[in-house]
Amino acid sequence: xxxxxxxxxxxxxxxxxxxxxxxxxxxxxxxxxxxxxxxxxxxxxxxxxxxxxxxxxxxxxxxxxxxxxxxxxxxxxxxxxxxxxxxxxxxxxxxxxxxxxxxxxxxxxxxxxxxxxxxxxxxxxxxxxxxxxxxxxxxxxxxxxxxxxxxxxxxxxxxxxxxxxxxxxxxxxxxxxxxxxxxxxxxxxxxxxxxxxxxxxxxxxxxxxxxxxxxxxxxxxxxxxxxxxxxxxxxxxxxxxxxxxxxxxxxxxxxxxxxxxxxxxxxxxxxxxxxxxxxxxxxxxxxxxxxxxxxxxxxxxxxxxxxxxxxxxxxxxxxxxxxxxxxxxxxxxxxxxxxxxxxxxxxxxxxxxxxxxxxxxxxxxxxxxxxxxxxxxxxxxxxxxxxxxxxxxxxx
Length: 396
Ligand code: SF4
Ligand code: SF4
Prior knowledge:
By secondary structure, the protein is an alpha/beta fold. The protein has one domain (36-382): Aldolase class I (TIM Barrel, Alpha-Beta Barrel), CATH 3.20.20.70. Helix content is 32%, strand content 9%. The chain contains 14 helices and 8 strands. It has helices spanning 43-46, 53-62, 76-82, 126-139, 157-167, 189-196, 209-216, 220-233, 260-275, 291-300, 303-312, 340-344, 364-369, 379-382, and strands at 95-99, 143-147, 171-176, 199-203, 245-249, 281-284, 327-330, 336-337. It has an 8-stranded mixed β-sheet with strand order 6-5-4-3-2-1-7-8. Strand 1 (95-99), helix 4 and strand 2 (143-147) form a beta-alpha-beta unit. The chain is globular, with a radius of gyration of 20 Å. Bound molecules: iron/sulfur cluster (2 copies). Residues 322-324, 338-339, 341-342, 372, 374, 377-378, 381 line the site of one iron/sulfur cluster.
């Protein structure tokens, strides 16, 4: 499938460009991009050591954390138990999140999936799509959340949306990188989504061009604004619940996500003033200490500092709302996980004596009774106001 060459990143690598706005919260006027991960190539393509999930776990485990977390141990499971969550089990299954593949037209440095234009092999096939539909039917979930990579690049994407949104009348979310909507094979999607009531959740690191292009590649910002205009033209981002447009931002450096409500107000004002585009909601997510963001932390010597920051900000009030408690995560090959993060770490779901269940074996009772697998990366979900597929968890 042709990819949009112009949307692939430049070779900015890890050039130091100065820190003006370290929180990425727009507090200071910008003349240079903030210090933070730059667009890169996939770790898989570079055969980087961190491609192996075990290596990532080793790096996290080696971090020497002082008096970390509520128990002072820096062990997520112990902090969970201390907060009264032992065992750590799911609530009601509401969402089936399907990662249809790792193929993407961009190569953002913070990507926890290690996606890129070279990840052509990992794409869900039609048989697995059908198995997902069977599992969705059994699950009773009201929402199907499609992610990737760029999910729109999977050849069965429109079939899957049609089956869920139209045939089953389920709420469908497309996690979109915006730039893909400006490529010729996908220009019809805003109108097509609007006709089916698909919610579009779009990643945009910042409303400033410098920040966004630095993290996602030169030219990304301009295409993203064009895509937002296309979505607005299709009725998205104007308060219609059937045309909901949500933006997702993540810090451009080793910092926690800022206050979601105040960032949303700031973003709405800035994008309306500068480009005349509107959206409905903003999610502010923490960067997870894994994959390409972990690689960047290692290069900066900031692994311990960032982990310590996450663990110090451990917030027990976020636990009940963690996405692993209401979401089934399915990988491109049909493997099941507790969340998309565990999926990228090959940290399989375990239930009922089955160490790596496949979507074709989905069993709602086994899911409800299983114990969710956690490790140190989970502190990324419980820091501050918390982070999940629905944005901040504890907004008190
Ligand atoms: S962060 Fe999103 S847009 Fe960027 S490479 Fe990863 S999947 Fe693609
Ligand atoms: S990474 Fe987050 S969502 Fe996944 S299991 Fe850990 S706490 Fe749950």
